[in-house]
Amino acid sequence: MTGVATLHASAALRAATVVGSGGVDAAGGTPRLESVALDLTGGPGLRVGCATLHARHVTLVGTPDAAVTTACSTSEVRVSDSVLWVADPFAGPRAVVTEYTDYPAAPDHADGPGDRHLAPGFAAGGLRPAAGSPLLDAGTPGALADADWPEDGDRLPRAADGDGDGVPVRDMGAFERPAPAVPVPAGNLLRDPGAEEAGAWAFTGGFARERYGAFPFPSAAAGAALSGGGAFFAGGPGPAGAAGQVVDVTGLAPEIDLGGATAALSGLLGGYRADGDAGRVEATFLDPAGQPLGTVALVAPAAAERANATTLLPRARSDAVPPLTRAIAVALRATRVTGGYDDAYFVNLALTVAAPGVPSLPPGGGPGGPALKPFAGLRVLTGSARVDRRGRIAVRLACVDGTVGSCAGVLTLTGALRKGERAQRVGLARATVRPGTTRRLRVRLSRAARQAVRKRRRIRMTLFAAARDGQGLTRVSTVPVTVQRAKPPRRR
Which CATH superfamily is domain 202-354 in? Predict the structure, then answer.
């Protein structure tokens, strides 16, 4: 705005920029300035009549006649977390002001406790702190109070981690330096990671999509700074909302079954002011029968970790993918703690799986490319096998004639070694079979499995085959195999 900004009574000017030679005139009462920038070419900066002016997170630059003037014996000015960068007779040409109070009581305008004289380190072309600026995280410590204005002059969250130390603290002046945006990683397996489209997630319990900029959600400027698009997920009006989708990872089955795959789960998670509404992102690894093999989770930052700012913070973790995982179920869960709306927020969600050893193959079957040939996978021809003297069983495998390349994969044998127990992995072997041929492969059993078979005589187990051909197609199969103890030696 240009001209004079005149404030009366308890009026407040927030998230604004004043330019020209007018400045701010506190005419009476107890007006407030919060997150205001003044870029002045003359006149008074802050002119205080018979009033008490509270100015917090103010940046005043330019060539005003004076940064602050008072016109009444009862005038009072309280300035905190602010920057005065002007040719001022009492503050000097370089002043960072944290606390100027009671101007009539200090007619010489001496510095208040905590005031410092130094270069503010603005970013080029603006008044926002640059990297390395002494303004970063130098404001009043602690979380935002309920009465604090929660946004800076550009409607970004007031407390941010601009210096990258992992702790959001308010900066000094009208503007915060936001933390670097965290883009969605390449290779993301989740559909609709940013709440921009419908159909990917199944919603329950009132879970919702919301738009940045709608009160009381994060502003549109905050969404842009986060690279969060125009929308995000929120818990919604119910007491416990959720959203979920299932990702198929069968194409990586051979590497997963060998135990070399890693899943990375990440996202931006947050909430509203001091609300304690809880959010978490869960990834559950599912076996070929859809049963869980384990669950990992990202937990949304508590309000104190956000410094009570309405914002979202990056969270990430990496975990080994359990062998025999064929799908990963991802769930967004929100639990309302306070208020009538669940303010657990989610955006830029990602699940990636790294599997060293996956061959680099040219893409096939795409538009304009050659059609892919059918792949039947690795055929298991054995339904019953005896344990030999070396603790192995022999399995006969076949690869269908016409297979591109070969049938190359992994065999995983599982079984419940005691009645009532859950099946466990008891054998693992790599297998490669040429097209149109069969092969006998020996799978060594674990010591516990050998002992169990010897004791129980026979155990019904399950053999999982995961194979890939030369086109990069992966097929999996499940075959029951009865494992019997070795034959007793013949008597002479």
Answer: Galactose-binding domain-like (2.60.120.260)
